[in-house]
Amino acid sequence: MHNSDNLQFLLNDPNLSADLKHIAQKVLDKQRITFDEGVLLYEQGELGYLGTLANYIREERHGDKTYFNRNFHIEPTNLCVYDCKFCSYSRLLKQKAEGWEYTMDEMFNMVTKYDGEPVTEVHIVGGVLPQYDVPFYQELFARIRAHRPELHIKALTPVEYHYIFKKAKIDYATGMRLMQEAGLDSIPGGGAEIFDPEIRDQISKDKCTADQWLAIHEEWHKLGGRSNATMLYGHIEAYKHRVDHMERLRQLQDKTGGFQTFIPLKFRNKDNQMSHVPEVSVIEDLRNYAVARIYLDNFDHIKAYWAMISRTTAQLSLNFGVDDIDGTLDDTTKIYSMAGAEEQHPGMSTKQVVELIKHVGRQPIERDTLYNVVTDYTNFVIGDEPKPQYYKLPVIN
Ligand code: SF4
């Protein structure tokens, strides 16, 4: 059956509304949908309808290819000068007994621990504290770069960059250039939360604004750098706020083309100041992936974190627009497990990740950070591995 047959079936469905048929036709014709159509998809699109559209786009772009990578995390600290209401990870300065603050040497030693391991990326992100400033990160990046030149350094979000550049009294363009010169290779997608100012103010007051978040990514893209973007969904936002968030990303992507991947992050309610807010269902997770795939027509990849939504839901998500499930994990991050994610001690070997993808009829592709193919496991049989290998976890900040 051709990939477009299911869409044709929708277009011939007498029970489907004219508005939803119009959107399906646009997807078939590779036309961009509008803001109002994005909201309509959230409000009226049923799971099967959204999945059909999103899977069509996914397969047009990537076929069955499903990406993962191998990396490890360094989380400099779980203390933070900010106080985001949804954050289960940060411990306020007054609760210092529960916190950690790694030194430069401790972080560098975490990198050397992976010497000889087949990792391609180090992902550095954590809380915001004054001692982690521009000179600190310049030195850290430079030491990692000198020690292991091929290791991709993906580090810090605009939340940290805005804070450290302001402290150093330098503008974003200068700051990002200094980071690049020190060895920074790309920026992860965190800190975006929800861009709408009213919602943002309620859940993560004081840290960088939407405009500042976007401006830092723009400066980075101007330097030729690539980055990702997240969206924290399923808390107090409305559908229009999710579409607004994606619209702002779509506009910047039109301008720079520097984003690689969009990563929806599900709000988890364990042990944070928003524990009274119920979590959304798995069905809503899948609908959200699908709408993102349909709306963000200029983003190459949509990623789901299996450790956050469970392995089974991650498998399902591959039919709802997702083409990247991140990878196995080696417990090098606590951000999501502390927020009540499905996997409290996440870890899968390469073999398990490959099988998880193959079991739902997709092609497992190990990638590097920039989506160059490291290994195509489609016809590759892996023996039993003596120990788990290392992958990254999602981050909120
Ligand atoms: S989400 Fe990030 S910026 Fe906000 S409190 Fe947590 S660690 Fe700090």
Automatic annotation (TrEMBL):
Domain of life of the native organism: Bacteria
Binding-site residues for S-adenosyl-L-methionine, renumbered to this chain: 86, 193
SUPFAM superfamilies (UniProt xref): Radical SAM enzymes
Entry keyword annotation includes Transmembrane: no
Annotated cofactor note: Binds 1 [4Fe-4S] cluster. The cluster is coordinated with 3 cysteines and an exchangeable S-adenosyl-L-methionine.
Cofactors required: [4Fe-4S] cluster
SMART domains: Elp3
Reactions the enzyme catalyzes: 3-[(1-carboxyvinyl)-oxy]benzoate + S-adenosyl-L-methionine + H2O = 6-amino-6-deoxyfutalosine + hydrogencarbonate + L-methionine + H(+)
Keyword Ribonucleoprotein: no
InterPro entries documented for this protein: Aldolase_TIM (IPR013785), CofH/MnqC-like_C (IPR045567), Elp3/MiaA/NifB-like_rSAM (IPR006638), F420 (IPR034405), FO_synthase_su2 (IPR020050), MqnE (IPR022432), rSAM (IPR007197), rSAM_sf (IPR058240)
Protein purpose: Radical SAM enzyme that catalyzes the addition of the adenosyl radical to the double bond of 3-[(1-carboxyvinyl)oxy]benzoate, leading to aminodeoxyfutalosine (AFL), a key intermediate in the formation of menaquinone (MK, vitamin K2) from chorismate.
Protein's name in the database: Aminodeoxyfutalosine synthase
UniProt gene name: mqnE
